[in-house]
Design a protein that fits this description.
single chain, alpha/beta, Rossmann fold, 11 strands, globular
C-alpha cells in the first residue's frame, strides 16, 4: 500500500523488540516513497492512547541494516510525510560511567559525534543549512518522558552525553577510556544523524536510551547476547514510557523545534 495522505502525529523509531501488536491498535503497514530512497522498512501505523502513531524499525524488521547503512534521511522524510510532529527514539547504549547501570534508562540531552560516513543534511544542493543542535533534544518531550519515568519508578538518569560511534564494531579500550575523559556518559551508534535530521525537518525529537552493558573501559567484554537479554528485560518499561508519553503530550507544541530552520540559511 502506498500512502497518499498524512495520517500520524507521533513517530517511534526503534528496534523490532519494541513492536508489539498490543501496543498499537487498528494497525496497518504503509510504504512511503521519498526522494532519498527507501526507508529502513514499511511503517506500521496504528492507534495508541487515542492518537495516531507511526512505528519504523530503525535497522529493518529483521535487524539487517548496519548503523552506517541506515537511510536516515529517508526515514525522517517518510515520517514527516506522514504528518509526524514528534519522534520518540528508543535505542540501546553502553555505559561509560559506574553510576549508569545496565538496565537503567538515560534521557540523553547532548551528543558527541564520532561518525564519519553519514550524510547529515537534507540540503546538499543549491543551498546550505546551518542547523543549530546546541540543544539537540526537544525540551517539551523530555519534560514529559522524565515525569512519566519518575511516576513509574523506573531507574533512570535525566541527562547524559551520548557519544555516537560509526559502528558496527564496538569500541577499543583506548577509545572507551578516551570517551570517558571527554565527559561522555553513554556510547551508541544511531543517535547521529537521526536527531540532526529530525531538527532539520522541524520535528520534535527525544531519545530513550536503555543501558545494556558497561563499555570495555570497565574490562567488561561487550557481548551481543548480554545486550539483547538486558533489552528484553527492560522492553516493557520502554513501551510503557512511550505509551504514557504519547497519551500525555498536548496536541499543540509549546517548543520551537518546528521553527528550527529560521536563521539556518545564509
Amino acid at each position: 500500500m502506498k500512502l497518499t495522505v498524512m495520517q500520524a502525529e507521533f513517530g517511534v523509531i526503534g528496534g523490532t523488540g519494541l513492536y508489539d501488536p498490543k501496543l498499537l491498535k487498528n494497525v496497518k503497514e504503509v510504504v512511503v516513497e521519498t526522494p532519498y530512497g527507501k526507508p529502513s522498512d514499511a511503517i506500521t501505523v496504528g492507534e495508541l492512547g487515542g492518537k495516531c502513531v507511526a512505528f519504523l524499525p530503525r535497522h529493518g524488521k529483521k535487524h539487517t541494516i548496519r548503523p552506517t547503512d541506515i537511510n536516515v534521511r529517508a526515514n525522517i522524510f517518510a515520517l514527516k510525510k506522514l504528518g509526524v510532529k514528534r519522534i520518540l527514539a528508543p535505542s540501546t547504549v553502553g555505559s561509560l560511567r559506574e553510576e549508569y547501570h545496565p538496565g537503567e534508562i538515560v534521557f540523553v540531552d547532548q551528543f558527541i559525534d564520532r561518525t564519519t560516513r553519514r550524510e547529515q543534511s537534507f540540503y546538499t544542493e543549491g543551498k546550505v543549512c546551518h542547523i543549530s543542535v546546541a540543544e539537540p533534544m526537544c525540551p517539551e518531550i523530555r519534560k514529559t518522558i522524565i515525569s512519566v519515568a519518575k511516576n513509574m519508578g523506573v531507574k533512570m538518569h535525566e541527562t547524559g552525553t551520548y557519544v555516537c560511534i560509526e559502528g558496527p564494531r564496538f569500541s577499543s579500550k583506548a577509545e572507551s577510556k578516551m570517551y570517558r575523559q571527554w565527559g561522555a556518559d553513554v556510547v551508541g551508534m544511531t543517535l547521529v544523524p537521526e536527531c540532526v535530521l529530525a531538527r532539520e525537518a522541524e520535528i520534535c525529537y527525544a531519545s530513550i536510551s536503555t543501558v545494556t552493558d558497561y563499555d570495555v573501559w570497565k574490562d567488561h567484554v561487550v557481548c551481543v547476547d548480554d545486550i539483547l537479554a538486558t533489552m528484553k528485560n527492560n522492553v516493557e518499561n520502554v513501551k510503557r514510557i512511550i505509551a504514557e508519553t504519547v497519551a500525555k503530550m498536548p496536541a499543540e507544541c509549546s517548543c520551537v523545534c518546528n521553527q528550527a530552520l529560521k536563521g539556518a540559511f545564509v
